[in-house]
């Protein structure tokens, strides 16, 4: 929602200030469609040249996340800690055999069913179940550092997938001012071809050419850059759920008591979204 509000504020302030300063919108609006076609078309073409269809789809999803906000709520982060803690407690108390049905078939697991949003999320489910399935297969004999390396590799892969759209948007932001100059130069070339025209006509043609430079800079620093920055913030928020899951698994494998396990996962959350340790402990006790 804030992204949409920000775009409206941006356009109103820029063009409103221009009009209040005595500027005429007529020449700008007349030149805008063709200049936008050149700049937007060049940006689209460059994106298609530099990416596969998979990355293009990720880019579209990335723009959607900017306007929808984080995928995981504060409660999702808490539930991920609680669910992983319960699974690790089951592993410690009853062994790998008792855990097997939960991590190999999470869709029918009674523990996972307590957290339907996480149960329906294949990324979170895989992040929890894959390392625990290894523990089941090895009957709990895997070295803790080996499990940590596997989880780190899985997190790194998932983060790369999530961060790719942000990198693409930032690349667009970096390219748009230059593409605006390309459109402006073409306008100047057109103007030079009509150098014998009266000054009034030449002035309009030069003004139209300058709209290209203006549009490229505005799209880069007023739109694409902030969209990329917001997507990065959203990714950081969503990716923390993976680190919380990792902390619970690794701390449990080290044999830490449950309060310390919960604190290891809780402390990694941003302060604004971090639950109280006492609340987590009460939740685990079923209060």
From TrEMBL:
Q: Name one Pfam family in it.
A: MotA_N
Q: Does the keyword RNA-binding apply?
A: no
GO BP term (any one): bacterial-type flagellum-dependent swarming motility
* InterPro entries per the UniProt record, alphabetical: Flag_MotA_CS, Flagellar_motor_stator_MotA, MotA-like, MotA_ExbB_proton_chnl, MotA_N
Q: Organism, per UniProt?
A: Erythrobacter neustonensis
Q: What family is this protein classified in?
A: Belongs to the MotA family.
Its taxonomic path starts at: Bacteria, Pseudomonadati, Pseudomonadota, Alphaproteobacteria, Sphingomonadales
What name does the UniProt record give this protein?
A: Flagellar motor stator protein MotA
Domain MotA/TolQ/ExbB proton channel spans what residues? 141-234
Which regions span the lipid bilayer?
Answer: 168-189, 201-224
Q: Which domain of life is it from?
A: Bacteria
Q: Which UniProt keywords apply?
A: Cell inner membrane, Cell membrane, Cell projection, Chemotaxis, Cilium, Flagellar rotation, Flagellum, Hydrogen ion transport, Ion transport, Membrane, Transmembrane, Transmembrane helix, Transport
Q: How does it sit in the membrane?
A: Multi-pass membrane protein
């Amino acid at each position: 929602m804030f992204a949409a509000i920000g775009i409206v504020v941006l356009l109103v302030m820029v063009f409103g200030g221009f009009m209040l300063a005595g500027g005429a919108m007529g020449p700008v609006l007349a030149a805008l469609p063709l200049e936008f076609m050149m700049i937007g078309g060049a940006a689209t073409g460059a994106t298609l040249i530099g990416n596969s269809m998979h990355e293009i789809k990720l880019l579209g999803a990335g723009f959607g996340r900017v306007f929808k906000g984080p995928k995981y709520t504060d409660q999702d982060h808490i539930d991920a800690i609680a669910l992983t803690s319960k699974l690790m407690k089951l592993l410690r108390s009853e062994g790998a055999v008792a855990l097997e049905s939960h991590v190999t078939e999470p869709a029918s697991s009674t523990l996972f069913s307590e957290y339907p949003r996480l149960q329906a999320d294949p990324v979170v489910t895989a992040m929890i179940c894959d390392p625990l399935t290894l523990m089941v297969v090895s009957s709990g004999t895997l070295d803790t550092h080996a499990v940590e390396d596997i989880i780190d590799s899985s997190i790194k892969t998932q983060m790369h997938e999530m961060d790719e759209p942000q990198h693409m948007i930032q690349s667009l932001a970096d390219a748009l001012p230059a593409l605006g100059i390309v459109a402006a130069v073409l306008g100047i070339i057109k103007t030079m071809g009509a150098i014998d025209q009266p000054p009034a006509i030449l002035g309009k043609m030069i003004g139209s050419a300058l709209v290209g430079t203006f549009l490229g800079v505005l799209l880069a620093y007023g739109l694409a850059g902030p969209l990329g920055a917001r997507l990065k913030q959203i990714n950081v928020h969503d990716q923390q759920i993976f680190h919380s899951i990792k902390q619970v698994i690794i701390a449990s494998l080290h044999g830490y008591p449950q309060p310390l396990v919960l604190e290891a996962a809780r402390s990694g959350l941003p302060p604004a979204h971090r639950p109280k340790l006492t609340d987590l402990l009460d939740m685990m006790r079923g209060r």
